[in-house]
Specification:
homodimer; six-stranded parallel sheet; six-stranded mixed sheet; 12 helices; globular
C-alpha cells in the first residue's frame, strides 16, 4: 500500500489545490480493464492518489501502475485491512465479491460492487446515479451497492426520461458489445486474430468460443434459463429493477462484435402513451450524462469509436414508427469501461 | 461475347456430360461481387460456360474472368443484343436496371433483377423460390422478377414455416451486415483500415461515412422517410410482400459490422398462436435451404464465418420468452452474396 509520487510535479500541476475528497478508497481488481479505469476516473475527479489503494490477487501484487506523476504499487487482496478505508470499489469478478464484499462492509467500508453477484439481490440497491440514486435510501443498510451491467446502464439512462414522460411497457433490444467488456485477454485475442486473418493464417479461438476477428458472436456470458444467456437475463432483470417497473416485457439478444471499446444497443421501446418525437428527443438530450447525436441530413450518428474515452451516452437514430403506435426506436452508444462500469461506480461513490 | 475453354479439360472433368441447361444466360454487372457469384453459382449448377455471357460497363469490357478451365471475356452492356438470351440476370445497380431491364424483357428475356428498383412495384413479383414461387403466376407477364434484399431473404426463409404454423403478427429486427454487401470497395476499405488501425495510423473513411474497422455503423443505404434508412424500409416492405401479409408490424434497424461476408439478423417475432418451441424448431429445420444450428450445451450457434461460401440459412438461439406470450426470438445467418443474392437469383432462373 505504497504510493510514490512527485511532490514538485503535484504542486506544479496545481493538483494539491484540487484535492476534493478526504475519503480513502480501496480498488479491488485494480489491474483489470475496469479496475484501471476506476483509478483513472478517481484521479480525473480529483481524488488524491494518497487516498487510493489498488489491490489485486497475490499473483499481481507488487505490479506498478503509473498515472503521470503518481505511481501505485498494487497490494495483495489477502493483506488488505478494510478498516483503513471508507469506500471499497470491487471489480474482480463474482467470486471475489462473494468472498470479500461482506467482510469489507462489516469492517465499515461502503462497497460498490461492479460484479453481477449482488445485482439481483432483493436487499441490495442497484444504482445508476442519474436514474435511481434514491433507491439507496429504500434498501436497508448493508453498505453494499451494486453497479449494473454495462449495456444496461446506457439503456436505462435513455429510458428513464422517456418512461417518466410516456410510460414504458415493452422493450426489445439487440446489442453490439465490444471485446473490452470481456477484459484484456479478449481485446488481445481480437487484435491477434485480426493480424492472423490479414496474414492469411487460421485464427484459433481461446477466450471466445468462436473466432471474433471479422466475425460476430451471438453469445455473451454463459447460457442460462429459457435459452437466454446470463448477459441477456442481466439486461432484462436489471432494467426492471433500476427503473422500478416489475411488469414490463423485455427481450434482449446480446452479441459480441469485433470492436475494442464502446457498446452499442439497438432499442425498440413501446410506451403506454402517444409519442411526441420532438418532446422525446428533448427529454433524452436534457437528461444528465446523455446527449442526442442525431441528424440524418448530415449523416450524424454515434458509433463506438465516438464514445471511447468519453463519459456520455450518445443517442442516435431516434424515430417513431410509421405503423406501430407508441413505439420509439433508437440506437445508443457508450464507453463500456467508463459509464458502463468505472465512471458509474465512482459517481455512486462521490454522491454518497 | 467470347468464351475460351479447353475442350480436353471439359471432357476429362466429365463436365460435358453434366450440362443441364440449354438456356442462354446474360449476366449484367458480372464484374461486381454479386455478378461474380452469379457466374460461380451458374457453373456450379451445371450451366455450360458456352451459355453464359458476362456483361459489364464499357469500362470493364474486355476484362477476363477465369473459372478453372473456363475463361470469360466480359462484354460491354451497350453492345448486348438481348434477343440472343433466354434469361438476363441483372446485378449492376438500380440505374442500370431502370434503363435496361425493360429492353431485355421486351427482347424476350426473362429478367431476374437483383437491384432494389422493381422490388416494390405492384406488378412485379418479388421471389424467394422456397417461399413464394407461386407469386410469379399471380403477376402479369412483364417478364421481370425482382430478387429481394439480402437480409430480407434469409429472414423470410425462417419466418415462412413459422407464419404458416403460428400466424406472424409483429417483427422487430436488428441486423449485423457484412461489408461485402456494399461491394469490393467496401471490403477493401475494411481490410485497409484494419491494417492502418493495427499499425497505429488513422483510418480515413471513403466508401463508408464512418470508420468501419473495429467499429459498427448504424446506417446502410441512404436515409429515407420516417427516419428509417432505405435498407430498413426494404426489409420492412419486402418481408410483407414476400410473405403476402400486408398488415404485420415490422421495425428494422440495419447496422454494418466489420465482417467480410455473412449477414446476421437478431429477430423478435410475435405470433397470433401459442408457440410450441419443439414444433417451431422442427418446422424451421425441415424448411428447404434452412438448417437449425442450435445447442446451448455445446455452444453451438452460427456466426458469419460459418456461412461464408455456403448455401443454407443457419438458425440459432431459438427461444420463447419467459413472460411475453407467443414470442419467438432467433438469430439467423446466411451468405449475403449467395442465398442473399446470387444463389436466390439463379434458383429463380432454374425453376422457371
Amino acid at each position: 500500500m505504497e504510493v510514490v509520487y512527485d511532490i514538485f510535479q503535484m504542486i506544479h500541476s496545481g493538483y494539491i489545490g484540487k484535492v476534493m475528497y478526504n475519503k480513502k478508497y480501496v480498488v479491488v481488481g485494480a489491474t483489470g480493464m475496469v479496475g484501471r479505469e476506476i483509478l483513472t476516473v478517481l484521479i480525473e475527479r480529483g481524488v488524491s492518489p494518497l487516498n487510493i489503494t489498488p489491490v489485486a490477487s497475490t499473483k499481481s501484487a507488487g505490479q506498478i501502475i503509473e498515472y503521470g506523476w503518481a505511481r501505485f504499487v498494487v497490494s495483495a487482496l489477502a493483506d488488505v485491512n478494510f478498516r483503513e478505508f471508507d469506500i471499497a470499489l470491487f471489480s474482480a469478478g463474482k467470486d471475489v465479491s462473494a468472498r470479500y464484499a461482506h467482510t469489507a462492509a462489516e469492517a465499515g467500508c461502503t462497497v460498490i460492487d461492479n460484479s453481477s453477484y449482488f445485482r439481483e439481490h432483493d436487499d441490495i440497491p442497484l444504482i445508476v446515479p442519474e436514474v435511481n440514486m434514491e433507491d439507496i435510501e429504500r434498501y436497508n443498510g448493508k453498505r453494499i451497492i451494486a453497479n449494473p451491467n454495462c449495456s444496461t446502464i446506457q439503456v436505462v439512462m435513455v429510458l428513464k426520461p422517456l418512461h417518466d414522460m410516456f410510460g414504458l411497457n415493452e422493450l426489445v433490444m439487440s446489442t453490439y458489445q465490444a471485446t473490452s467488456g470481456a477484459g484484456y485477454c479478449a481485446v488481445s485475442e481480437l487484435l491477434e486474430q485480426t493480424r492472423m486473418v490479414l496474414d492469411g493464417e487460421t485464427a484459433r479461438p481461446k477466450h471466445f468460443k468462436m473466432q471474433i476477428a471479422f466475425n460476430v458472436i451471438p453469445q455473451i456470458d454463459d447460457f442460462s434459463e429459457y435459452g437466454y444467456t446470463k448477459e441477456e437475463l442481466k439486461m432484462m432483470n436489471e432494467t426492471r429493477k433500476i427503473l422500478g417497473i416489475s411488469n414490463i416485457n423485455i427481450a434482449a439478444t446480446c452479441v459480441r462484435v469485433p470492436v475494442i471499446t464502446g457498446h452499442a444497443v439497438s432499442v425498440f421501446a413501446r410506451f403506454t402513451d402517444d409519442i411526441d418525437l420532438g418532446k422525446a428527443i428533448a427529454v433524452i438530450d436534457e437528461f444528465p450524462g446523455v446527449r442526442v447525436m442525431d441528424d440524418n441530413a448530415t449523416y450524424t450518428y454515434a458509433t463506438p469509436i465516438d464514445v471511447a474515452g468519453g463519459n456520455n451516452v450518445l443517442v442516435s437514430r431516434i424515430r417513431t414508427h410509421p405503423n406501430i403506435k407508441n413505439v420509439l426506436n433508437f440506437w445508443c452508444v457508450s464507453d463500456n469501461l467508463r459509464k458502463g462500469a468505472a465512471l458509474n461506480a465512482v459517481q455512486i461513490a462521490s454522491r454518497l
